[in-house]
Amino acid sequence: MTNHRNACRAFVLLILLSIVALAQAQVGRIQVLVAPDHPNWTYAPGEKASFLIRAVRDGNTLGGVKLTYAIGLEMMPPTVTQSVTLDAEGLRVDGGTLNEPGFLRCIATVEEGGRSYRGLATAGYAPDQITPAVADPADFDAFWTSGKEALSKIPIDGERRLLPELSTSTVNVYEVSFQNVGAREGATSRIFGILAEPKAPGKYPAVLQVPGAGVSPNHALLRQAELGAITLSIGIHGIPANMDARVYSLLGSGALANYWLNGLESRDRYYYRRVYLGCVRANDYLTSLPNWNGADLLVTGGSQGGALSIVTASLDPRVKRLAAYYPALSDLPGYLKGRAGGWPHMFKSEAEDSHRTKEKLESAAYYDVVNFARRIKVPGMYSWGFNDETCPPTTTYAAYNSITAPKQLVIALETGHWQVKEQTDVVDAWIDEYVKQAASTH
């Protein structure tokens, strides 16, 4: 009798488990994988490229789903668009070719379960031969020499406030500010940032970190400070560096929305004049500190910060090294030549109300990173990926290829406007080695 009851219970449990299994819904994010047929994603002009497109969920390839793919020059309208059913083994598509240096991109979109999933890959055609579209103004150097002269007449007037909650046992952290040129001739503004410096007495190298685009707080560069460097992370908008996060969000969507277009019609009133000169002023502040070693200064940043790194190293001979990820503001008028232009893409539209006016195009040339890259004289480390849709590789190569100083390029092919650890490890090691060597010799 007991055995019969146990058997019944086991049977009921089996039925219940079966019901649970049937009721369990399985979901998973689909990845759309696109890859050119060359392992290094690089081709010679005239060579044909093809792309393999696959959809993967839970580690397994997915078939029987709707696929739409588009192929064309990066950031430009596609020349091929096709919708098909994707099989589990994937689909290889003919990408065509380019007859001159540039980038050919395949964007694939899969639809499944009422959702769309997107992937892309970009084939580079002789990217090391890409030449800039932007002209080099004849009075470029005179314009920026005049700007630096105006800056030099403004006292630094540095202020600092200890932030004990951010300091460590070996590093003091401060909010700092100092005077800068203003938006109008004769006016002044302030630059705010977060300074970190070793507590131990001594003479140290300096590292300046310049910010990416947007409006956000600054953070201390503790790793380099703990290695033996004075570090300064600055903002560009003249607002305190460590306010409540909501304040930055409100400013970014309000008063500072689209700041990168402010005053573009005039080289003397463009928003970035104060920003570029403010980076030089940040170096004025750093090199005025009594614990700076008097010799070593590195600048680094990504995106807008990559642009500002190149600009600062070009304008300021005190900079001895720079490290830049995917520099923005590079080769801005590329769109006028039928190819990608740099962030913030103000010249992409051909509409009547676009920014493609004579005044804005002429003004932008004085701020284009390519024209600063042409004047770089110090070693630099640069890094980006082929899939960047914010700072397209056509534009970053246009800047990089213009540099005649010693340079290294780390390519993380699949990355877009972001970094992977393998990439940052190389760049960080390069920065850290410079800091440690400089710290050990003073």
Can you offer a commentary on this structure?
The model has no long low-confidence stretch (mean pLDDT 93). The radius of gyration is 26 Å and the shape is globular. It is built from ten helices and 18 strands. 43% of the residues are buried. The chain has two domains: 30-129, Sandwich (Immunoglobulin-like), CATH 2.60.40; 140-440, Rossmann fold. It is an alpha/beta fold. Helix content is 27%, strand content 29%. The strands form three sheets. It has a nine-stranded mixed β-sheet with strand order 10-11-12-14-13-15-16-17-18, with helices on both faces. It has a five-stranded mixed β-sheet with strand order 2-9-8-5-6, with no helix packed on it. Strands 1, 3, 4 and 7 form a four-stranded antiparallel β-sheet that branches.
Describe the secondary structure blueprint for this structure.
Elements: H1 2-23, E1 30-36, E2 42-43, E3 49-57, E4 60-61, E5 65-73, E6 80-86, E7 91-96, E8 102-112, E9 115-125, H2 140-152, E10 159-162, E11 171-181, E12 188-198, E13 204-209, H3 222-227, E14 230-234, H4 245-253, H5 271-288, E15 292-302, H6 304-315, E16 321-325, H7 358-365, H8 369-373, E17 380-384, H9 393-400, E18 407-411, H10 421-440
Parallel strand pairs: 2-9, 13-14, 13-15, 15-16, 16-17, 17-18
Antiparallel strand pairs: 1-3, 3-4, 3-7, 5-6, 5-8, 8-9, 10-11, 11-12, 12-14
Helix pairs in contact: 5-6
Features:
442 residues; alpha/beta; Immunoglobulin-like; Rossmann fold; 2 domains; nine-stranded mixed β-sheet; 27% helix; globular
